[in-house]
Amino acid sequence: RAADVRASDFPLTKIDQITPLSYSGGESLAASHVDIDGDFAYVSYNTAGADYAGGIDVINISDPYNPTVAYRIYGPVDLNSIIYDNGFIYAVGSTTENEILTEGLSAAVYKFPVSSEGRIDLCAYETVYKVGFAANDVAVSGDNLYVTSGKDGLVTRYDKNTMEAMEELPYADL
Questions:
Q1: CA–CA distances in Å: residue 109 to residues 12, 17, 39, 150, 167
Q2: Could you tell me the sign of the dihedral formed by the alpha carbons of 57, 58, 60, 64, in that order?
């Protein structure tokens, strides 16, 4: 029974840590989500407040007692969730790019190709902007990518291969 299970029944032991990303103000970013696949952990970052700053760490965890950052990117975006699937990182969040904000599309979906060594190909990434203040979660099922955006936003189903929006369902707030 769930009522008989306590958090202390699942002890965790810290075995190592990675120094988080920091932005130009010198403050560390907060890890917002982690996805683990094989020898790599994919970590998204964001920051609290009005500033938009975030990034991605690809961490090699093949030796859990000695994790190493395989690749790290940073930018003027808050990233709220991340998932790895079949050679790609899908990350979602929000941006302050002026031309996008004026169209009411601050929620962003990013697709990054990743090598087997954990290197992100920044020359071949894709970005899709959607209605909503911020995209806040992402999931993959088959050839579909599902993304939610926050207050008065949408649940959107994309074709993960083409990043074309296939279906959108509006909602007031979750």
A1: 33, 28, 25, 13, 15
A2: positive
Residues 114 and 88: beta-carbon distance below 8 Å: yes
pTM (two decimals): 0.87
Q: Copy the structure tokens of residue 65.
A: 């007692």
- Residue-wise pLDDT for 145-159, tens only, equals 999 987 777 899 999
State how far the Cα of 43 lies from the Cα of 69, in Å rounded to an integer. Answer: 10
For 8, 88, 113, the CA distances from 116, given in Å and listed in that order, are 37, 10, 10
Q: Give the end-to-end CA distance of the chain in Å, rounded to a whole number.
A: 28
- Pairwise CA distance, residues 90 & 164, whole Å: 14
Is 155 within 8 Å of 146 (Cβ atoms)? Answer: yes
